[in-house]
Each structure stands twice: as C-alpha cells, then as structure tokens.
C-alpha cells in the first residue's frame, strides 16, 4: 500500500514512522525541505521527489497545520484523482464545511476526515515517535456516502499504527474534544499565566501537581489558536459552565466560614468527573519496570553508570535524570522490560549503586 | 534524637519512614489505632504507648488534618514542656493566628510552623513513601523570636528527609501556595467536573493532556475544603485574575474570526508562565541549553555516548531519552549550562554523532 503524507511535523512524521515499520511504502512532502529531509532521515519514509511510486498513492494523508488543511485536501483530491484523501486535524465540523465549499460533489466521496487523538507538547518531526498512536483513539468521521472500500483502507491504515478506531459524527467528535482536549488546554494556559509575575521564591515551591496541570501550557500558540477558533462554539459552551462553577467557588471564598459547603462540592464534583476518565490509553502496551538510582553529583558518574548498565547487557528502554543544584544526589529512573528488572538491580547494587526502593536487600547478594 | 509524630496519614507516616531510616527514634500517635498500627507496621516508627522514650521527645510533629492542627499544637506544647513543636499544614498565616490565641506567649517560642511541600493524590499511611520529601522544598516559617537551637533542630530534621529547606514569611508562603498549589487544585477540579455528564463515547477520547490536567482532581474533598477555607483571601485574589482572562477567551470565542488575537495571547501568556516553573526538584528556572542527539537503537550505544560526553569533561544537568520500539533511532536530549553547549556539539559532531538541530555545520568542524 502506497501512502503519501503531506506535512511532516509531529503527526505526519510519527505516522510515517509507524506505517514504514508496517511495510507501507511512505512518501513524504513538506513545504519545508529541511522538515521533509529530517522526517526521511528519522525513517518516516522517502522524500516524495525521490520516490518512484509517489505519483499514484492509494492514500494521501494531510498532516499540515489546520488553517491550510482544507485547501491542501482540495488540492490533493485534484492532484491524485484515484487516491483516498484523509487528514489528521483536531476539529472536524468546520473543516468539512470548508472542504465541501472547495471541491466537487463527486470528489467529496474520496475524502474521509480523521482525527488520531495523539500528540505531545513538543512539535516537529524531531519529536516524532513510531508509537505515538499506539493504543490511542483514531476517530474516523465518515458518512453514509463514503464508499466501503475506501473506508476499509483508512481503517486498515489507522489500525496498522496500533490505534483504536472509533467512528463518530463530526459534531459529536467536536463536542467531545472540546471537553477532553480544548477546554483543558485553555485552562492549563490560564493557570500557567498566573505565574508570569510570581517572584522566584514563590515559583520555587512548585510541585508535581502544578507541573501536571500546566504541562500542556507549553503548547504552540499558533496551532492552538487555529484549533480553538475552529471549535469555538463547543468550547465556549463548556467554558461558560465552568465559569459558573468558578463563580460559586469565588463567592464561597469571599463569604468565608459557613459557606465551605460550596468548596467541598467543587472538589467532590471534580472527583466525580475524574472517575469518568477511562484508564490510560496513551501508554505503550508493554509496561516497563522502573529502577530508581541515586547518583552522586560528580562529573563522569553517569558515564560509569551507563558503562555498568552496558556491561550487564540489559537494554534501556527509557532513561530520565533529575538533578537539583545544591543537592548531593541526582535521581535517575531507568526503564527496562520487567523480566530484566531484578538482574539490573542485583548488578547495580553489587557495583555499589544506591537503589533506595529495591526489593532486593543488599545483604542478600553478597 | 527522639521525634514524636501525631497523625499518621500520608505525611506523618512518610516522615516517620524517612526519619527512622536516618537513626531518629520515632514514636507514632493517631486518633485511629488502626492508622497508628499500620504506620508502625510499615516501618514509620514505634506506637507511642509502646515506646519507652516517647514521653520526652525533643521534637513533636503535628501531621493531623488542618482543621484540628491548631488545637493539637496547643495541646502538644502543654503536654511536652521541653519539646519543639512543629506541623506540616499547607496554610500558615491563619494557623499561626489560631495558635497565638490558644497558647501562652512563653510557649509560643517553642512552636515553629513548617510546610513540607510534598504530597500525593492518594492519602493515608498506605500511600506513604520514605522518599516523599526527597529533593522537595520544606518551608520553615520561623520569626526573630525563634530560639536558634530549636530552629537548628527543625532544619536538621527537615534535611534528614532529603528535602531542601526554605525560610519564608507565613504571608509570602500563603501567597505562593495559592498560585502553585491551591488554584491549580480548584481549577483541576472544575475541569474534571465538566466531564460528569459527558457520554462515554466522549470521555473515551480522553488523552494524556486531560489526565495530567485533572490528576489532582482525585484529591480528598475534606482535606481540600479545609485548605481552601484556610487560605481563602489569597486564592480568591488569584482566581479573580484568572476569571478576567477566562472572560477574554470566552468573548473572543463568541466574536469569532478577527478576535483570534485574544486566543493566541491566552496560550502565549500560558507559555510565559509555564517557563517560570522550575525543574522537577525545585531548581531555579535557569534555562539549560538542550542538545538533541539522534542515537542508533543498538545495545551499548548509550554507554559510548556517555563516555564521549564524559571525555569532553562537560557536566550533564539533565538527560532524557525517548526510545520507541520499532524506530530506527532514539532521541536523546542532553541539558547543559548554555556556556558549554557549543563545546558539547562540536565534540559530539566530531565523534560522528548526529545533532539535527545543531547551529554548527558539520562541514565547519572538519
């Protein structure tokens, strides 16, 4: 199956990586030659101008910024008269309306809007991952006019990335993403915004709660302005409900003792909503075991640690270090497949590394 | 050093675990015999009634729910006339006022308010961890009347848990936690609350962004009602600012095309605030330079990379690897102080490493 991807940012490049690994032939195109080449170097596919079969792809995926998606879809439908054209944009109703205005009725049947619900707060091909879509929902907004064979191709492509296909009406999709994605983005940005003028001694107290609430506040303003503008009605409706509840909290805080019931209610309603969020889809199906090592803050220590891990011949799946200045120790989290966890802990303990939460007693391995 | 901990929930039990590991003698007391025994069984200390020296502790730590903290502090000052009494409550100004009303001026010098800024969305001794305080800020609110020897005892105890001591005025502390902890809690609860009536097909689209924004919405309403009520003025002030910005977003969404500037501004201000949040373990928001290296996914490669960085004698401040199964290349982000970035890039490029976003052209260093 030949796939042509237009737009090699985070989503386009990640899709290329995922599909290339599944024996799809992927050709890549981007208005930026650098971005296009980077995606190809990462293994996401072949630059289109160098790919022999890129002229007649079965599927064209539009993974451009949302504000040019409609025009790029229309152009692709004209350029590739046999291809099924799809996209990955986060808002579906307004995009579909724009596409309907731009293309012939007969071509419209070859367009199937999609929204793979995957992303990161980082952007660009450099942030791409072949497992970005693994176990994530991939929404397909087809209708009764969509030819079944074309729909089948898109479903097969989505499933090849490891995602879970969900068929939704565009309007239901847009109402859903307003609640689960767009409003959380707006609110995370507003919470982070309150820190702009906070003195350093105040932000120094930041903990994991704040970091989690505001992680997505690092997102790209250009992209998000397009997304918010494209789904404005649905987002506004949720924000108005949220503001009503916010006003109740503000009033309760003003009234003081006697109105703590409203505060308790706000937190309890949050509990209730939180319980509705289904289990993690985002993580890779294999759970890695994490071994936490305390590392003295001296030059060369990490090199020694890696040499020691390398000598054990254990493959490291993920590695994170947090290092606080003034602190005598850094904290290193090494992720490995669970079957090798014990071996890693024994090996590192025997070489004198500190693993505070190891289940293996140091005495037991002498 | 003998420490008596009153209240063996998450914080009290974690403190007991951390101090017991440091050769402190810890005795435990809780109004719930079950909670008290559980903490002791986990290794947090000895149940007070069974501890020979529990009658004359040097330090008494009050780790009860905030609404009974003031009375418990007053009682402890009377019961243990030689001890320094401290607490772990999240709000300091209103607690100090209550304590002042309850105790004699002469006893007040033995009370030193603290706020170890550690926690989890889970509660109870069962969620306790000996490393809960590791590399976290531990705020001490002493004043000029505090005897230096008692202050020294509290600092030593805090440092024994691995935390970083910060001395703050109670009012500055309360303003800070309103921004970095209490407002994020309120807002996370309000975002989660909007999901209460969302159909299952909508919440099925939840991603990591929503999960992060709402993780702390699972927090205990009783505890949080007490915290919010105790710091109502500071929280209300921040929420009013946030509401003003929320109203600007709502208006921009209503006005539609032409007012997207306000949407872009909201996300950009969020970026700005987010950048002020210091690194995970409380480090100052010094921006490190990040060098991104493409690493072939073969065993031993990371060890070679670290050896090469080690040979350059450059200290690594932070290190992250993303390694996706099936991908031909891993992506490694190495953070260093900006002054050493160029040296690191030149050194690694000359050894054949791929640095796609390097400002230094590979040709230039041959």
- Largest sheet properties of chain A: 8 strands, mixed
Can you tell me the CATH topology of the largest domain in chain A?
Answer: Rossmann fold
Number of domains of chain A: 3
Rg from Cα of chain A: 25 Å
CATH superfamily (homologous) name of the largest domain in chain A: NAD(P)-binding Rossmann-like Domain
What is the CATH class name of the largest domain in chain A?
A: Alpha Beta
Oligomer kind: homodimer
What fraction of residues of chain A sit in β-strands? 15-25%
Structural class of chain A: alpha/beta
How large is the count of helical segments of chain A?
Answer: 14
Tertiary shape of chain A:
flat
The overall strand count of chain A is 11
- Tell me which protein chains meet in the greatest interface and how many residues each side has: A-B, 137 and 134 residues
Under the CATH scheme, the architecture of the largest domain in chain A is 3-Layer(aba) Sandwich
Give the termini separation of chain A: 57 Å
Uncertain stretches of 5 or more adjacent residues of chain A: 280-286, 361-366
Helical amount among residues of chain A, as a percent range? 40-55%
Question: Can you give me a brief rundown of this structure?
Answer:
The first copy, chain A, is an alpha/beta fold.
């Amino acid at each position: 199956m030949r796939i042509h991807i237009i737009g090699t940012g985070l989503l386009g490049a990640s899709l290329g990586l995922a599909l290339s690994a599944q024996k799809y032939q992927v050709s890549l195109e981007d208005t930026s030659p650098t971005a296009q080449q980077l995606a190809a170097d990462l293994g996401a596919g072949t630059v289109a101008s160098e790919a022999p079969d890129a002229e007649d792809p079965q599927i064209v995926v539009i993974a451009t910024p949302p504000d040019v998606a409609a025009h790029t879809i229309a152009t692709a439908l004209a350029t590739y008269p046999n291809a099924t054209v799809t996209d990955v944009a986060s808002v579906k109703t307004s995009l579909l309306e724009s596409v309907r205005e731009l293309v012939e009725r007969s071509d419209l049947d070859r367009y199937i809007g999609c929204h793979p619900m995957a992303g990161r707060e980082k952007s660009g091909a450099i942030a791409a991952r072949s497992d970005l879509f693994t176990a994530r929902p991939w929404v397909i907004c087809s209708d009764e006019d969509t030819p079944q064979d074309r729909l089948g191709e898109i479903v097969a492509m989505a499933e090849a990335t490891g995602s879970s296909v969900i068929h939704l009406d565009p309007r239901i999709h847009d109402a859903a993403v307003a609640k689960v994605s767009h409003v959380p983005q707006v609110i995370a940005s507003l919470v982070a915004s309150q820190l702009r003028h906070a003195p350093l001694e105040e932000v120094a107290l930041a903990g994991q709660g704040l970091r989690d609430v505001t992680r997505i506040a690092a997102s790209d303003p250009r992209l998000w302005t397009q997304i918010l503008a494209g789904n404005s009605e649905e987002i506004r409706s949720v924000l108005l409900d949220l503001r009503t509840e916010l006003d109740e909290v503000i009033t309760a805080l003003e009234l003081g003792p006697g109105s703590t019931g409203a505060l308790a209610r706000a937190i309890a309603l949050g509990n209730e909503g939180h319980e509705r969020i289904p289990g993690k889809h985002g993580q890779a199906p294999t759970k890695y075991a994490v071994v936490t090592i305390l590392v003295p803050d001296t030059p060369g220590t990490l090199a020694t640690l890696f040499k020691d891990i390398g000598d054990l011949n254990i493959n490291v799946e993920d590695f994170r270090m947090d290092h606080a200045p003034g602190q005598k120790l850094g904290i290193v989290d090494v992720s490995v497949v669970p079957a090798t966890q014990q071996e890693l802990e024994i090996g590192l303990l025997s070489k004198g590394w500190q693993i505070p939460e190891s289940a293996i007693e140091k005495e037991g391995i002498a």
